[in-house]
Specification:
about 450 residues, alpha/beta, Rossmann fold, Nucleotidyltransferase, domain 5, 2 domains, 8-stranded mixed beta sheet, 7-stranded mixed beta sheet, 15 helices, disordered C terminus
Length: about 450
Amino acid sequence: MQKIIDKLGLCRKLDLPGNPVQDAFLLSPARFKIFRAARRVGKSFTAAKDVLSDILLPNTRGWIIGPSYELADKEFRYIHDFLIRCNKILKFPLPEKIRANPKAGDLYIKTEWGSEVVGKTADKPQALVGEELDWIILSEAASHSGETWGRYLRPTLVSRAGRAIFPTTPDISGKWLYDIELEIGGVLSNKEWAIFHCAAWDCPHYPEEEIESIRNSTSEDYFMEQIGGEWTFYVGRVFKAFSPQIHVIEPFSIPAGWPIWEGVDYGVRDATAVIFITRSPGGTFYIFDRPTVIHCVNILEKELRKPNARVSDHHALGKQLALDWSKNGVATVNNPIGRKDRRDKLMASLEIRNGNNIPWHIKEQQKGTIEGSKYPSIYIFKGKCPNLVKELMYLKWKETIRQEGTYGDTIGADHAIDATEYVVSYISKTGQNFHRDKSVYALRGCSTLTGY
């Protein structure tokens, strides 16, 4: 039996509907594909269409793994229907074995040409070892644990160079999947992984009045997660305005005339966080290098050229560390603003607002008049600052008697955030002419003995 490469052609012959996002998903040659989308936009249907060409090959074996057998049954029923269509339209033999009883935990199809489809659940992950597979559908992937995928399922694909599909609506338990999305732009190969996103309003069959009804009757976080298909994770996020789809952009070469600043958040127990930031003539910030750096020599090696200033916090232990770093050639100036004000300024920079300043990279890409758009005033280079992106996504207010916590009352790492805030607040406070040549500041007014 010949391998079927034209998946779209196969779907058309079987009269299976689609849309541009689903079609792009089928056409992708990536080995591992994430389909993150709103509820009821056809994630399971698309995943089943994608593996059909594998099932029509002889002697293949694939699993559908759901958080429960009932959820695994969604893709299973679609595949069952597709095989019946193949019999009626393409004259393929009907499956020789079909067991479709999710309540009894029995989902199984065996074809005449030797291919198998098995529905499973991840409630006992030890039962997922020992097989070699051609494909996997991890149904509602965000509801699984990262260990289920990394420890138990990924090894089953090794011997047959199998592939995996992750259809899901975002959920807080899917942080591991979100981490994979961040890494796709960095250490993971884009040839192996691909991400597809579909909000309800991008899906032709979704009624607009239903979208608006849900928008008006639910919280913003719920709406964007369940209807927008976005990673929001929790109510109570500190940086609600931050969205990787908006604020994380493709890197570009920084023009030679632009200034560079470094934000430093010293650490003893945790790694010191260092953020490298530049600013366009129009006032847009760009964060362009990896934040976690430990040794002074690493910072000096990473500097593109002499920075306008390095900014850190010189209070408490920071005073001694600032002195130590200065002695090793990495002098810093003191962050001039308290936490509340500097956090406010970073929040404001992330917000999308009307304004006359079109970001430099947008102008370069579009090369023309751009009207009627809103933009933030800070961006992050894709794949360069994964820790900062994670912190902006995950930092949460502690639950208190107030709706949101106080500015020092948060849950989660914020070292890279602090380093970023130092630079943004420093430039705001000092009113620096950000295209003036300025030497690195030396540390002043500290005792050489104590650092205070």
